[in-house]
Design brief:
- The structure holds three protein chains of three kinds.
- By secondary structure, chain A is mostly helical.
- Chain A has two domains: about 35 residues; about 240 residues, MetI-like fold, CATH 1.10.3720.
- In chain A, about 75% of the residues lie in helices and about 0% in strands.
- In chain B, strands 1-2 form a two-stranded antiparallel sheet.
- The longest helix of chain B has about 35 residues.
- Chain B has twelve helices and two strands.
- In chain B, helix 4 crosses helix 6, helix 7 runs antiparallel to helix 8 and helix 11 packs antiparallel against helix 12.
- Chain B has one domain: MetI-like (MetI-like fold), CATH 1.10.3720.10.
- In chain C, strand 1 and strand 2 form a beta hairpin.
- In chain C, the strands form two sheets. Chain C has a six-stranded mixed sheet, with helices on both faces. In chain C, strands 2-1-4-5 form a four-stranded antiparallel sheet, with helices on one face.
- Chains A and B meet through helix 1, helix 3, helix 4, helix 5 and helix 6 of A and helix 1, helix 3, helix 4, helix 5 and helix 6 of B.
C-alpha cells in the first residue's frame, strides 16, 4: 500500500503559505522603511537648500536655521575619532592575532572586547562625562566628544581588523619568516598591506557609527545650540545627530517636521558617501588580491 | 665560534646578529593597544561604581531596587528604579514581540527561499538599514508612527511606549536577520537532503530540521538584539516620552532608563549632587543588564553550538 | 618601475618559433653526473638524535642525518612519515607552531641551531625555503624578490635591482618576466610562481635551500624545469628536497634519506638506495608495495 497522497492534505498548501509569510517578513521591513524615508524626503523638500547648509541654527525662524555648525562639528569629531581609534584598534588587533598565543590572556581580552561591543553607547557617554569632561577637566568640547566616540567604536575597529588579519593566508606569514623577516617586518610589509581593504572597511563602518551617535554626546553635555564654529579642540560644538535631536524635540512643527527632516537628509547623504568610499576601496584594492 | 669552518667567516653567524630593539618595542606598543580595551572596561566599571556608591550612601539599595516611584526632582525625592526598569522592559518586550517573528521569517526566507539575486539585493539593503542612526528613528517615530498609532487607538498618548517599540523593532530587525541567516545557512546541505529524501515538504524541512539545527545561534541573535533594544537611547527618548510610571499599558507615555540619563545630562547637573549620581546608578543598572544578556548570548554560542563536519 | 634592461622585445619572442626559454630536459642538463664523494665532503647540516614532538605526539624518533655540502639530499617516504617536519626543523619553521618541542641537536656548520642564543631570523636568512604550494606575496614580481634583501637592510635601489636580476636569472625566470617586473606576481602561471619563490629564496643569499615538494602542484613541463633548476643550483647551494615521487628523488638527488613513521630508516647515495636498498621497508616502498 502506497503512502503517496495519504494524510496531511494541506501539507503542500501550508508549505507554500509559509514561504509567502517569510517573504512578506523580509520585504515588509524594507518596504516600511522606504515608505517612511520617502515621506521624510517630502517633508524636507524645499527646506534643504544652499542656505540650509551655510547657516547657523536659529531660534527665531525655522527658515533661517541651518546645519553649518553641526556639519563642521561632525567632520571634526569623526576626523579626531578616526585619529584616536585607528592606531589603537589596529594595534590591538595585530597584537591579538599575531603576538598573543592562544593563552588565557588572549581569551580574556577577546571576551572583554566582545562585551565592550555590546555596551550601550549611552553608558560610554556617562563614562566620557565622568572621565573626560569632569575627571580630566576637558569640558564638553570637541576633544572630549571625540575621545568618548573613540571608546564607542574601538571594539568595531578591533573586531573588523582581526577578521581582516585572519583572512590573510598563513602561507604569506611562513614565506616571510622563511626569508628571515622579523615578526614586525612581516606584519608591516606583508600582513597589514594584505589586510588593508578589510581594515579600511571596518574603519569606515566605525566612522559611520560615530557620525550617527547622538546619545554619548548628549550624555557628556555637548551643546545643542551653537552659533560659532569650533576653533580649538576644547571649544563647545554641536554635531549633526545632536542638532537633529534638538530640532525633533522642538515643539514648533516647522522645526520638528521640516528642518529636522532636512538635517536627517544631510546626515544620511554623508553616511551614504562614507559607505560608497568603503565599497570603492574594497573593489579597488580587493581586486588586486586573489588568493 | 672557533670550531666553525671557514665558510661562515664571510657570512653573518647564526647566533648573535644585529640587536633588534625595534621588535620588543613594537611588541610592547601593540600590547599596550590591546591593554587599552581592558582599561576601557575597568574605567567603565570604576566610574559607575564610585559614583553609584556615593548615591547608595544616601539612598538604600533596597529602596532603589524595590521603590515604585521615581521622582528625583520632587521634595522629598524618591528613587525607586522600578518605573524606569518597567519602561525599558515594556519597550523592549514590544520590540521583541514584533521583531523576533519578523526577523526569523525574513532570515528563513533569505536563507531557504530567496533566489541569489534577491538575496544579493536584500542583504545589502538590510545592512544599510542597520546603519541608520538612532536619532533618525526617533524622528520617524514622532512624525509618522505616532499619528498612525493614535488614529488606531485614540486614547493613546502622543508619546507612548508602542511608538518606541515599533521603531526599536525596525532597528533591531537587521541584526536578527543577518545573524540568524548566517547560522541557518551554515546548516549543512546533507541534513536538508536527508529530510527531503524522506518525502518532507519544504516547510517540514525548514521548521523541523533546519531551524532546530540552528537554534542556539538563533537564540543568541535574539539575545543580542534584545540587549541592543535595552540600551537603545535616542529613538526611545524621543518616542516614548518623559513620564516615569509603573504601567504595562503600551499606549501610555513612559520613561526608560536610557531616556532618564539623557534627560538628566541635558540639563547641566553639578558634580557631587544626588542628581548627578543618579545617572551613574541608573547607568550601572543598564550596564549590568546588557552585560548579562551579552554574556548569556556568548555562552550559548560557545557551549550549545551544534558541530557539523 | 622600469626593468634594468630589456633583453628581448615581444616581437622577437613571437618571431622565433622556438625560443631558448623552453629547453627540453636532459638535452641541456646532464643529470647523470654522479657525485661519488658524499662522505668526503664537508657536512653542512648534521642532525644528531633529533626527537620532535607536537604536543604529546612524538613525531620524529632519534633522527641522525648528515647533509653534505653542495649536494642534493632527497627526503622520501610515504605521506605522514614526517619528512616535511624534519625539513622544517632545519630552519626552525616549526617554532611557529605552538606546543612543539625538539630534543637533540641540529648543527649548521657545526653550530647548534637549537641552542638558546640562536637568532632565528639570521638562521632563516642562511637557510632558505621553498614551499609545497607556491606562495608569492600579493605584490609585484620585483617586490617579491627584493623583499628578503630589504628586510635584511639593503636599501640602495641599484643594489636591489642587481640582486633581483641575478636571482631571477638563476631561477631561470628572468627572460620571461624582465619586461614586467612591476606586474603582480599573482598573474604568473603556477610554474612561474614557484620559480619566483625560488628566486625569492635565493635573494637572501642562503647556504642551504630547503624545498618542500616544490613541484607537487605543477604540470610535468614545469616540474622538469624546476628539476633542471635544482640540478644547476647545487653547485652553489646545499639543497634538501622533500618529495613523494621516487622518480624525482632518483633524478635530482645525490643522497636519499628514507623516512617511515617518524624514523629515518635508511640513508645513502641515491644510486645505492634505489638499486640495492639495505632495509626491507625501503625496498617495499621503492618497489611500490606501499605509499
Amino acid at each position: 500500500m502506497s503512502l503517496a497522497g495519504r494524510g496531511r492534505p494541506y501539507a503542500k498548501a501550508a508549505s507554500a503559505a509559509f514561504a509567502y509569510v517569510c517573504a512578506l517578513c523580509a520585504f515588509a521591513s524594507v518596504a516600511v522603511l522606504l515608505i517612511l524615508i520617502g515621506q521624510m524626503l517630502r517633508f524636507a523638500w524645499g527646506w534643504l537648500d544652499f542656505q540650509f547648509l551655510t547657516s547657523f541654527d536659529s531660534q527665531l525662524s525655522a527658515h533661517r536655521a541651518g546645519v553649518k555648525a553641526a556639519l563642521v562639528g561632525s567632520v571634526y569629531l569623526i576626523a579626531l575619532t578616526a585619529l584616536f581609534t585607528v592606531p589603537v584598534g589596529v594595534g590591538a588587533a595585530v597584537y591579538l592575532e599575531e603576538y598573543a598565543a592562544r593563552s588565557r590572556w588572549r581569551g580574556f581580552v577577546q571576551t572583554n572586547i566582545a562585551n565592550l561591543a555590546g555596551v550601550p553607547s549611552i553608558v560610554y557617554g556617562i563614562l566620557g562625562l565622568g572621565l573626560f569632561v569632569r575627571g580630566m577637566h576637558l569640558g564638553a568640547g570637541v576633544l572630549a566628544g571625540a575621545l568618548t566616540l573613540s571608546l564607542v567604536v574601538l571594539p568595531v575597529v578591533i573586531l573588523a581588523s582581526q577578521e581582516a588579519l585572519r583572512a590573510v593566508p598563513n602561507t604569506i606569514r611562513q614565506a616571510s619568516f622563511a626569508l628571515g623577516a622579523t615578526k614586525w617586518q612581516t606584519i608591516w610589509h606583508q600582513l597589514l598591506p594584505a589586510a588593508l581593504p578589510g581594515i579600511m572597511t571596518g574603519v569606515i563602518l566605525a566612522i559611520s557609527r560615530a557620525l550617527g551617535e547622538a546619545a554619548p554626546l548628549v550624555a557628556i553635555g555637548a551643546a545643542g545650540f551653537v552659533m560659532f564654529l569650533p576653533a580649538g579642540v576644547n571649544d563647545k560644538f554641536t554635531a549633526l545627530p545632536l542638532q537633529i535631536y534638538n530640532w525633533t524635540e522642538n515643539a514648533n512643527e516647522e522645526f520638528q517636521f521640516h528642518v529636522a527632516a532636512a538635517g536627517i537628509i544631510v546626515l544620511l547623504v554623508m553616511l551614504i558617501c562614507l559607505n560608497a568610499v568603503a565599497v570603492y576601496l574594497r573593489y579597488r584594492f580587493g581586486k588586486r588580491i586573489r588568493w | 665560534m672557533s670550531s666553525a669552518p671557514s665558510v661562515t667567516a664571510e657570512k653573518p653567524v647564526v647566533s648573535g646578529g644585529p640587536r633588534r630593539w625595534g621588535e620588543p618595542l613594537m611588541h610592547g606598543l601593540l600590547w599596550l593597544c590591546a591593554l587599552a580595551s581592558v582599561f576601557v572596561t575597568i574605567s567603565i566599571v570604576l566610574i559607575l561604581l564610585v559614583e553609584s556608591l556615593e548615591f547608595f550612601r544616601q539612598v538604600s539599595v533596597v529602596e532603589f531596587l524595590s521603590g515604585t516611584v521615581w521622582e528625583p526632582h520632587a521634595t522629598p525625592a524618591r528613587f525607586g528604579i522600578l518605573p524606569l526598569a518597567c519602561g525599558t522592559l515594556l519597550v523592549t518586550a514590544g520590540a521583541a514581540i514584533i521583531a523576533i517573528p519578523m526577523g526569523l521569517g525574513a532570515a528563513i526566507y533569505l536563507s531557504e527561499y530567496a533566489t541569489p539575486v534577491v538575496r544579493d539585493v536584500l542583504k545589502p539593503v538590510l545592512e544599510i538599514l542597520a546603519g541608520i542612526p538612532s536619532v533618525v528613528f526617533g524622528y520617524l517615530a514622532i512624525v509618522f508612527i505616532s499619528p498612525i498609532v493614535r488614529s488606531l487607538f485614540p486614547q493613546a498618548d502622543v508619546f507612548n511606549a508602542l511608538n518606541a517599540s515599533i521603531v526599536v523593532a525596525i532597528m533591531i530587525l537587521p541584526m536578527i536577520v543577518s545573524l540568524s541567516e548566517d547560522v541557518l545557512r551554515s546548516v549543512p546541505r546533507s541534513l536538508r537532503e536527508g529530510a527531503y529524501a524522506l518525502g518532507a515538504t519544504k516547510l517540514d524541512v525548514t521548521a523541523g530540521v533546519v531551524v532546530p539545527a540552528a537554534l542556539s545561534g538563533i537564540m543568541a541573535s535574539f539575545l543580542l538584539a534584545i540587549a541592543r533594544a535595552v540600551g537603545e537611547t535616542m529613538a526611545v527618548t524621543l518616542a516614548a516620552g518623559k513620564r516615569p510610571q509603573l504601567t504595562l499599558n503600551p499606549l501610555e507615555s513612559i520613561q526608560t532608563m536610557t531616556a532618564y540619563i539623557v534627560e538628566t545630562t541635558k540639563g547641566d547637573v553639578p558634580r557631587g549632587t544626588l542628581g548627578y549620581q543618579t545617572i551613574f546608578a541608573v547607568g550601572l543598572t543598564l550596564f549590568l543588564a546588557t552585560l548579562a544578556l551579552n554574556v548569556l548570548a556568548q555562552w550559548i554560542l560557545k557551549h550549545m553550538r551544534e558541530k557539523y563536519e | 618601475m622600469t626593468p634594468p634592461s630589456k633583453p628581448q622585445s615581444m616581437t622577437e619572442l613571437t618571431a622565433e618559433p622556438k625560443p631558448r626559454t623552453l629547453p627540453l630536459r636532459r638535452t641541456t642538463v646532464d643529470h647523470s653526473r654522479v657525485v661519488d664523494d658524499l662522505l668526503d665532503r664537508p657536512q653542512k647540516v648534521v642532525a644528531r638524535d633529533v626527537n620532535f614532538f607536537y604536543g604529546e605526539h612524538h613525531a620524529l624518533h632519534d633522527v641522525s642525518l648528515s647533509i653534505p655540502q653542495n649536494c642534493v639530499t632527497a627526503l622520501i617516504g610515504p605521506s605522514g612519515c614526517c619528512k616535511s617536519t624534519f625539513l622544517r626543523c632545519i630552519n626552525r619553521m616549526n617554532d611557529m607552531i605552538e606546543g612543539t618541542r625538539l630534543s637533540g641537536q641540529i648543527l649548521l656548520d657545526d653550530v647548534d641551531i637549537y641552542r638558546p642564543r640562536t637568532d632565528v631570523v639570521e638562521l632563516r636568512k642562511r637557510v632558505g625555503m621553498v614551499f609545497q604550494k607556491s606562495n608569492p606575496f600579493p605584490k609585484s614580481i620585483y617586490e617579491n624578490v627584493a623583499y628578503g634583501p630589504k628586510v635584511a637592510g639593503i636599501r640602495q635601489r641599484s643594489q636591489l635591482d642587481e640582486i633581483v636580476e641575478k636571482c631571477l636569472r638563476r631561477a631561470a625566470l628572468w627572460e620571461e618576466v624582465a619586461d614586467r617586473l612591476a606586474a603582480s606576481a599573482l598573474q604568473l602561471s603556477g610554474g612561474q610562481q614557484q620559480r619566483l619563490c625560488i628566486a625569492r629564496a635565493l635573494a637572501t643569499d642562503p647556504d642551504v635551500l630547503l624545498m618542500d615538494e616544490p613541484a607537487s602542484a605543477l604540470d610535468p613541463k614545469s616540474t622538469a624545469r624546476i628539476e633542471d633548476l635544482i640540478f644547476e643550483l647545487k653547485d652553489s647551494y646545499t639543497i634538501v628536497i622533500v618529495t613523494h615521487t621516487m622518480k624525482q628523488a632518483a633524478r635530482v638527488s645525490d643522497q636519499t634519506a628514507f623516512f617511515y613513521e617518524g624514523r629515518l630508516v635508511e640513508v645513502g647515495a641515491t644510486t645505492d638506495v634505489f638499486t640495492k636498498p639495505r632495509q626491507r621497508q625501503t625496498e617495499d616502498y621503492i618497489t611500490g608495495r606501499f605509499g
